[in-house]
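so my prof wants the structure for this chain in the tokens format not the other one, which i didnt know existed until like an hour ago. anyway here's the sequence
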Amino acid sequence: MKVLFVSSEVVPFAKTGGLADVAGSLPLALERLGAEVKIMMPKYAMVKVKGQKTVIGKNLEVFFIEDERYFGRDELYGTKFGDFPDNLDRFAFFARACLGLAKKLRFKPDVIHCNDWQSSLIPVYVKTLYGDDPFFAGVKTLLTIHNLSYQGLFDKSQFSSTGLGAELFTINGLEYYDKISILKGGILFSDFINTVSPTYAREIQTKEFGCGLEGVLQKRSSDLAGILNGIDYDIWNPATDRYLARRYDLSSSRRKVDNKKDLQRTAGLPVSAAVPLIGIISRLADQKGLDLIAAVINDILKEKVQFILLGTGDDMYHALFTTIAKTYPKKTSINLKFDAVLAQKIYAGIDLFLMPSRFEPCGLGQMICLRYGTIPIVRLTGGLKDTIEEFDPKTHRGNGFTFEEYSSRKFLEAIQRALSVYKIKTVWEKLVKKAMSYDFSWESSAREYLGLYKRISGR
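here's what i got, hopefully its the right format
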């Protein structure tokens, strides 16, 4: 099975979000299963590889599309003031360049696996501009939607930048409320569409989560599925994590407390094994449920707890948590920044992790937490619903604490249930061990993708 994997960001070369983690892990898992995979991505200024190619895994080639005009910038998609105004030109060029490079390399894939709007013109081009090219005859396309809210919307005056005929700017083409939607084009022209969790695949066909594209997705429902993301267990492994004060595994889970104490010292919090330590690592935005955290944070901190936050985002939340830090200096550690080392320490050191998202296509934080024996408190949406089940202290069924109604009251109740179970040490220790026993590595998800490729290509 030959797969061309196209992504606008790939770990470890360039990253703004979870897409990069997937693009850096899934192809490696596919290679281990015997697929022949090549990755293509833009060569941004942050990419430090010399030349246009490197190799990861055993023999997985990563090719960089290079053009100083479009990609020689410090940021990937824009600055804090907004998106780059020429993003359509940039990623239309990227799509055409990927197809041209595949042809130059004589690498005819069975499937081109596209990701999000930045590569969504590829399925359109394969069936239009390259429709009569014998090289692409029989080549199938898969589009993975990592987050439907990012659609690649542009003013209709820029449509000529796509290189497509005006007949495609219609309601049955790339037109979206008198704008261009690149993602819509990918949805309509790809041979199959998938999302990063089964629940999110169902949610995006509803008005609440469909971002205006629910009708288009409903029409393609027979060609739409959800495959849960995984995480790289070589990277996220408390038994080998070099940033931890003390490594541990399922058989030595009690050592986790040493990392809690180390985190407390690092964060300037009073060192106490007994006090529950609650944490969040997140982009500070409404989508992540930060408005719910804002509503309950004072109630939480009235309890005998500690709270640590790591992340950046909206100014209103920066101001809020700066005030919280001043109000509760001995109970909180507010870190308004990105710090990869501190993130590892938080996952291993905290007891409870908050993910009260409005929507969450998949979510990786809850999977990482389980790997480290940290218990998630989540809202039942998207991938959170597919991975976390309410813990019952009597039957010991479940692996976290959940709520469904998007309200601060329900969120607070879930936190209070978690804190009540935390007090029962024998039960809590069993929950930690159970959490660590789950397997959300990429292998099972990669097998699903391999099966999907075979289904799409007929091979």
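also thought this was worth mentioning. The two ends are 8 Å apart (CA to CA).
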